[in-house]
Amino acid sequence: MDLVFHNSAMVNIHGKLIFNIYIVFYCSAIILPHTCICSQFTSSSNGQHNKDPGAFTVATNGEPFPWHELRLPTKVVPLHYDLFIHPNLTSLNFVASEKIEVLVRETTQFIILHSNGLDIMNATLQSEEDLRYRKSGKKLTVLSYPAHQQIALLVPEKLMADLRYSVAIDFQAKLADGFEGFYKSTYRTLGGETRTIAVMDFEPTQARMAFPCFDEPLFKANFSIKIRRESRHIALSNMPKVKTIELEGGLLEDHFETTVKMSTYLVAYIVCDFDSVSGTASSGVKVSIYASPDKWSQTHYALEASLKLLDFYENYFDIHYPLPKLGRFKFHIIVFIRTCFDFFPLYM
């Protein structure tokens, strides 16, 4: 089962689920079937998609882009992402880095990833031998093709089939203005102060706005997430926090447990100043409700209902919730719960 946070003023999150169930607390119990349609997978209306398979796709720097299909090639698949994020809620941007462990299925000279609106500063590649002997990574040439929201990492030597490699990428971007990707949201306190938080919506294909990735459901992997923040904020992600490291300048860095294998759109992380109330379901899963401090008193009913719902769905489907915790956000009076058993769950 996976949960979605909804801010009635700022947050707009959609879901694709088995039985496609949305439950609205505080308003009514309404079940709405919903099917996600990925607009990225439709034909290009601006003529960017090449009808001639022999035609060259041109990158932003004028060089030939080595891939002209809308869907990613399957010669290289991700196994594990080690993702670091540092959002700045004052400047409203974020810096980040990642290491992606990939498996090469077929010999190739390039790796194609999704990336949308990210400034790629550096990309390197290490083979298993490089990692074993702690050799430095080989610098990769990065080409961009915005029409398909793709980047190509050109490797100096061919990647050999059945071997694993590590791809390291440093990047940065602004927190998005809309409701997709990794974006800024605001709420107003009872005293009239406007506060900013950093939230995300990666479904169906917006994880590419937050980090370069294989942003199709087929490419499942494990995720290890680290988030750097100010002491006045908290960080939340799919899995429980392992530890917090104190850094210079009063910053803190939270490290979270590695996730189960899942698609990129299920990755979740949030930086905010919310308070929470928690309880434990009969199966032992910790359930938490997060809300702005002024709305904390309204969270207890949501917690009570959430515990009952989790027990009900586990019994009804005879499937145990596979993560050790589960959480949701309550901004005003509406909480949406998305139940899902065809994908692994997300959030807190």
TrEMBL record:
Q: Which GO terms describe its molecular function?
A: metalloaminopeptidase activity; peptide binding; zinc ion binding
Q: Per its UniProt record, what InterPro entries does this chain match?
A: Aminopeptidase_N-like_N, Aminopeptidase_N-like_N_sf, M1_APN-typ, Peptidase_M1, Peptidase_M1_aminopeptidases
Query: What does the record list as GO biological process?
Result: peptide catabolic process; proteolysis
- Which parts of the chain span the membrane according to its record? 17-35
Q: Where is the Aminopeptidase N-like N-terminal domain?
A: 77-266
Which domain of life, per UniProt?
Eukaryota
* GO cellular component entries: cytoplasm; extracellular space; membrane
Q: Which UniProt keywords apply?
A: Aminopeptidase, Hydrolase, Membrane, Protease, Transmembrane, Transmembrane helix
What's the protein name? Endoplasmic reticulum aminopeptidase 2
Gene symbol here is ERAP2
